[in-house]
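hey can u check if this looks right to u? its 305 residues, i copy pasted from the old doc so theres a chance i mangled smth
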Amino acid sequence: MSEPAPALTPDQRAWLRFRRNRPAVVSAAFLLLMVVLALLVPAVSPHAADHGSDAQFAAPGASCWFGTDVHGRDLFTRVFAGARISLLVGAVGAGVSLAIGVAWGMVAGYVGGRTDGAMMRAVDVLYSLPSIIFVIVLITTLEGPVRRAVTAVSPALEPSARMLLLFAGLGAVSWLTMARIVRGQVLSLRTRPFVLASRALGAGHVRILVRHIFPNVLGIVIVYLTLTVPGVVLYESFLSYLGLGIQPPQASLGTLIAEGAAQINPVRVYWWLVACPGTLLALMLLSLNLVGDGLREALDPRGEA
């Protein structure tokens, strides 16, 4: 008789469930391809420089796949350069959300009592504030001091001042839901036998949080993190569309859409200036959400192997 197949580990079962979700797998492959193109295209494209005024508003064709803009620049190169900035803002903003939200939620849920109540009331107060208005006020208020501080360090870093404010502002408004989710999970974990046993053996609070509780909330944290990235990217695109986001010479997908919309007039509609960056942004947000849904199903312990 043949020996029975070895039992699969939880990670292996989760990977199998994720692979069976075709939309999530296709979306993950698309995101990986987009990251590679965002890194390589602006660096190796032969059309990175301006073509001159004679090439402005050229329609998409064999020489310029996405056409050219008002300055004769290749839109294919600019779109993937903008995608790189948008992905960077989304990843850093989600990372700030991860650091603040997980720490806040774990402490509130583990300590409990009045500390938990005070910390979550602070979250409720922040929830009551319009997040996009908060980010706009933060950028308009602090841009001058931040720009002067960055310029004092290195004048070459001045264009990055707005990006630093975006990182801080978008991260500061995106951690609230993460904190609530983590706090709810910790409340159910802190009375589990393995936590009580670790405490009885003399383990400190930090060790219990890091070694026992955090690994058990990591799955839902990863899932929500994949859903936070598209939210941050959408916020950044909206702010850039309003002129409060990434500033020239840098460009994000939001600024490219804004530049394209400014060229639309009743006489001539240069549709590719809006359609190309807008389509890529929509596909990126859709793929991130599908990957998040796939991870949620894959990491569900009730799923079948």
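Residues 123 and 241 are 29 Å apart (CA to CA).
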